[in-house]
Every structure is written in structure tokens, then in C-alpha cells.
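ok so i was messing around last nite and threw this chain in just to see what happens. nothing serious, just curious
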Amino acid sequence: MRLSVLHRTVYTYRQPVTDSVNEARLRPLDHPFQDCLTFDLRTDPPSTFSAYPDFYRNTVHVFEVATPHRALTVESRSLVETRPPPLPPDNQDFPFEQLKKSAWDLACYEFLQSTELVSCGIAAWRLAVDLVPKPSDVQEAAFALMRGTYRTFEYCPHSTQVHTHMDEVLRLRRGVCQDFAHVLIGLSRSLGIPARYVSGYLFTQPGPGALRGTEASHAWCEVHLPGWGWLGLDPTNNQVVDERYIRVALGRDYHDVPPTRGTYRGPESREMKVEVEVRSAAPDRNQKPMG
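result:
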């Protein structure tokens, strides 16, 4: 699929602020099943950008607005081509015994631990065991945890904040896509399944059957199947990730991948408004992927 993305964030302040230093993780990733064909990032007031890859190879743009301003707009526009990611063969098993190797795998080790927003402690373990009483196959267990998260928790916009801990979501039994992803990650890790947080976008057609979590950035989970690789699972919509999903950044939890983050000098009070549009785009045969 060829998809266009508009992501606009507007910060407004009651009084002028200065020395605003920010970073943005808004450029879609390039990987075997996704190409970022074009990407444009702008701010108002205007600023210049520098970019670097973070620890997880996400692209981070850094910019500064030193002059006084009462509003800051950060807008990115992307054109992305996606392809269906492969699925594990139907006849392949993933025994739980193979997970012992994950603790020694550098690609998996840090996705087995509790983090700032995700817990794989006793509360998560109890719910995971309720959903998967006798886990034997990693993929089957991950699917059961995804279905359980989808059925147990109510999708309720504006019910939580970006810094809401997974334990609070377990108590409230409601949240948004970020919370659903954190819950599935915590449940998976509590059973020894490596799981990581993915932020990005989701394309859906409007009307009956529209997918949830498309009003802003979307979030989902990837679990590691031993001997095969990472499989994307979306607990907000109870489905495997396909070509409708655009990956922007990945990490241990939301704190590793916020779309925008920064500091400024001025009053603490501010307002933030986010607008996201994901649309189908007609292919351009002359367009080439960006390097």
C-alpha cells in the first residue's frame, strides 16, 4: 500500500516562552516491509534540524526555537509504501522451552524486563496465567494474551495520560492504544516472552468496521518467536499487524519513542493539540525511496 501521513502537533502557552529545545521521532522507519519515500518536517516558528539514530535505530530530529513565542507547531508529512509482513508457517511450533535462549539473546534481553511504564510483576503474571493457564506454544500464548487484553479492557479515549503506568491500567480496566500495548507487553514479559513497543500509524476506511486508535498516533506490540523473529500484534483491534500499519519507532515502552519531547523556559501551563491523517496515496512510478 502507498499511504500519506500528516502529523501536526500544536503547543500553546499562556505567556511567551523561550529556549525551546526539542526532539521528534516522526520519520517512518525503513525496513524490509516498509519504505519511507518522502519525509518533510517543519516548525512554526521556523527552525533548523539535525538528525541522528537513537539506540534502537529510530530517527531522531533535534531542533531549537530560542526566540520568544506563544505557540509552537511541529508538522511532518510522509509518503510510505508498505508490504504485508510474513507470517509464521502454519506447521511451525514455538515451544516455551526455547524461550530460555531469549535471556541470553542481546536482541531480546532488554525486552524481557520491567521498565518505567511496563511491569511484568505479580499482577501482570496473575492475569497472564488466567488468560493462558498452561502455556506450551509461544505463538498460541501470545495470541491468547492479545485476545484477552482486547476483551478485558475497555477502549476509552482520554481515560489515561501518556505517562500512565501499566499497573494503573490493570486497575482501571480501560485505556487507549498505548495502554493496550503496554498491557500486552507486560503480560508477555511476565511469561518470559520478549515483547517490545512500536509506535506509528494505522490506516482504516471510515464507517462501520473502522479500526480503533486512528485518531492520533497508534501503538502496538511485537513479540519474539524463538527461531523465527518478531511478530506484530495489535491488542487494540485484536489482530496481527499487516500492511495497513506504518512503523515509526520502537523501544521498551512509550518513554523510548514519544513523537515529540522537549524543554523550554517559561510557564509550566500549556496546551497540546495533535492532528493525524493517514490516507491512501496513488503510486508514482517515478518516485524512489529516500536514502
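not much to say yet. The helical segments are 122-131, 138-152, 166-172, 177-190.
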